[in-house]
């Protein structure tokens, strides 16, 4: 049987392949986005597809829609960090066989394969699925982020943002549109440009919260677009006047959900618990330039993970930035090399 793993993260593809039963007699194939996935399907390489949802070129929803439109009968198991209830309902409605969250544990995968009748042990001496993986990744464990290590950071963020989006979606009873996380090592001037690009025209309200744990430290920063408050108040069933005090309460509730859930997901994957400081309001109804100039002494060279959250069908948008100190990068790179 031909099995296709379709995910834009090379780390996630290897992680999933290693989690498959070692004695499962299958031929593994890989695709880095939905378009490549469809090409592999047309080549006959996707009897069973493990499909990510958040990908460039064509996302997982697009793959499922294409398979359904073309009458292709490939079996699809979605493996995603986006674990919102609506995401599950959408993929099942598009014909997915099942849905599991990232990262997929070996026992979960084995139970799923048995449940759907895919698993059978390979005869003695037959190469296993995991033995067909390409060779290991070699990367510098210093502060330089190689493409391979950046890919891991992006996948860690992908899983963490999905957990945060799930909590927010349940709180608002709405669907959170998730992007592909952006990961970069930035100097101070570059960070200011990134912050400006995150909110190029809107006025903002911003909250930051520090965190630290086992040689890793940084700040989580929420940039909330002020034009979002009216719809956010409706989604949260806010009663009464929407004044600055009420907006601050909505802002803090949103920040607590997104920052707390993201950091928990990120810390769990690195096996490093974080202690979180008290959230601090950096400003309300300020331009991004004002926020930067007021707080520029806080930020130095940093590893920045940027995620833009949007609520489908509502004018609600905010940016979450994780800013890790330069000293933290080497610690996290060492942990990542052990994961690789």
Summarize the structure in words.
This protein has 340 residues and is α/β, with parallel strands linked by helices. 41% of the residues lie in helices and 23% in strands. It contains eleven helices and 13 strands. It has helices at residues 10-19, 34-42, 60-69, 85-93, 106-115, 147-172, 188-198, 229-235, 244-270, 288-295, 326-339, and strands spanning 2-6, 27-31, 48-51, 75-80, 98-101, 176-177, 182-186, 204-213, 216-225, 275-276, 280-286, 302-311, 317-325. Strand 4 (75-80), helix 4 (85-93) and strand 5 form a beta-alpha-beta unit. Helix 2 (34-42) runs parallel beside helix 3 (60-69) and helix 6 (147-172) packs across helix 9.
Query: What does the oligomeric state look like here?
Result: single chain
> How many helix segments?
11
Give the total of beta strands. 13
Global structural class: alpha/beta
Mean pLDDT: 84
- How would a textbook summarize the main sheet? 8 strands, antiparallel
Radius of gyration: 21 Å
Strand content: 15-25%
Coarse shape = globular
Poorly predicted spans? 122-128, 130-142
**What level of helicity do the residues show?**
40-55%
Order of helices and strands: EHEHEHEHEHHEEHEEHHEEHEEH
Q: Give the CA-CA distance, first to last residue.
A: 27 Å
What's this, in brief?
This protein is α/β, with parallel strands linked by helices and 340 residues long. The chain is built from eleven helices and 13 strands.
What are the defining features of this structure?
single chain; 340 residues; alpha/beta; eight-stranded antiparallel β-sheet; five-stranded parallel β-sheet; 11 helices
């Amino acid at each position: 049987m031909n099995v296709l793993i379709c995910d834009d993260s090379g780390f996630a593809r290897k992680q999933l392949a290693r989690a498959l039963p070692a004695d499962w007699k299958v031929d593994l194939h890989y695709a880095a986005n939905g378009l490549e996935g469809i090409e592999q399907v047309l080549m006959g390489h996707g009897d069973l597809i493990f499909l990510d949802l958040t990908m460039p070129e064509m996302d997982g929803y697009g793959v499922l829609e294409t398979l359904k439109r073309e009458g292709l009968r490939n079996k699809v198991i979605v493996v995603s960090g986006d674990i919102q209830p609506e995401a599950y309902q959408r993929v099942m409605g598009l014909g997915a066989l099942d849905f599991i969250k990232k990262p997929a544990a070996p026992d979960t995968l084995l139970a799923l394969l048995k449940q759907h009748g895919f698993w059978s042990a390979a005869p003695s001496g037959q190469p296993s699925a995991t033995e067909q993986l390409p060779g290991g990744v070699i990367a510098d464990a210093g502060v330089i982020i190689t493409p391979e290590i950046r890919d891991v950071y992006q996948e860690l963020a992908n899983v963490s943002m999905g957990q945060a989006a799930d909590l927010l979606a349940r709180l608002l009873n709405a669907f959170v549109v998730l992007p592909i996380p952006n990961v970069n090592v930035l100097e101070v001037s570059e960070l200011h440009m990134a912050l400006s690009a995150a909110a190029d025209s809107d006025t903002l309200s911003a909250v930051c919260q520090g965190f630290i744990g086992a040689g890793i430290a940084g700040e989580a920063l929420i940039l909330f677009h002020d034009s979002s408050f009216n719809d956010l108040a409706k989604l949260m069933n806010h009663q009464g006047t929407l004044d600055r005090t009420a907006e601050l309460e909505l802002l803090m509730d949103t920040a607590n959900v997104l920052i707390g859930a993201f950091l928990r997901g990120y810390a769990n994957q690195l096996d490093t618990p974080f202690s979180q400081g008290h959230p601090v309001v950096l400003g309300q109804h300020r331009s991004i330039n004002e926020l930067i100039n007021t707080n520029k002494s806080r930020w130095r060279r940093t590893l920045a993970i940027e995620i833009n959250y949007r609520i489908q069908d509502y004018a609600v948008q905010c940016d979450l930035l994780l800013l890790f100190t330069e000293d933290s990068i080497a610690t996290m790179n060492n942990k990542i090399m052990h994961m690789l």
